[in-house]
UniProtKB/TrEMBL annotation:
TM spans (from-to): none
PROSITE patterns for this protein: HTH_CROC1
GO terms for MF: DNA binding
Domain HTH cro/C1-type span(s) in chain numbering: 21-75
Classification via InterPro entries: Cro/C1-type_HTH (IPR001387), Lambda_DNA-bd_dom_sf (IPR010982), MLTR_LBD (IPR041413)
Organism from which the protein derives: Salinispora tropica (strain ATCC BAA-916 / DSM 44818 / JCM 13857 / NBRC 105044 / CNB-440)
Pfam families the record matches: HTH_31 (PF13560), MLTR_LBD (PF17765)
Protein name: Helix-turn-helix domain protein
Amino acid sequence: MKPATHDAGMTVSRPAVGVLLRDWRRRRRLSQLELSIRADISTRHLSFLETGRSSPSREMVLQLADRLDLALRERNRLLLAAGFAPVYSENALDAPPMTVIRSAIRQVLDGHEPYPAVVVDRSWNLVAANESLSVLTDLVAPRLLVPPANVLRASLHPNGLAPHIVNLGEWRSHLLHRLSRQVEFSGDPDLADLEEELRGYPGGETHASGPTANDIVVPVRLRRGGRVLNLFTTLATFGTPLDVTLSELSIESFYPADEETARELRTRRSDPS
């Protein structure tokens, strides 16, 4: 472990870069030979880097991080572990450099009306939303919407959307599968804790059967006011982020899966009462 000194004078342990490289290689299910071929280095050199017998250059850290397909946050962590300064900035969304990003997000959210849309961070915490999200949040207990509100928790919690979802088992399986893949790819312990929490919620057996020949997407069927709204979602990210915060933002947009739902959402937009 390498020491890391903070401004307050406290020293904490930080994993050596070789340990992190080895752990990420194993998480990606790559042998040393496979990774060395991808990175165009010898297996011997990679072995020396992982065991600490050799120290990687800044360029080598970035090259290996790229071949391991690491998130920007993890690339910065590797650089710090190797003794280098982070390459990627991490600005708060309300910081001046993010002004154009905030404007773009607002344009996307507003342009999606009268259908719901949200912006979430890597932990699925709500960052921003359009007014039409109220068609969902009106059904959620207020305490689940206190910032930082987690949209997956609000969806599957017994006091959230879960009691109103007609196909809860199917939708629950879809969300848990998505989260499980994210946990596996990112290694994020907070996401692993969230997955464990969500799997412990009652109110819907995991949907085990596969799609039928007529299925196109997995919808969420939401019972509201005597009607059932059929919605499907798309997930969008920024294409070429160089900022950690920006790279971890996703925009999830809800679309009507039938004309009845579209008409209901349009009517609700024009007459919220």
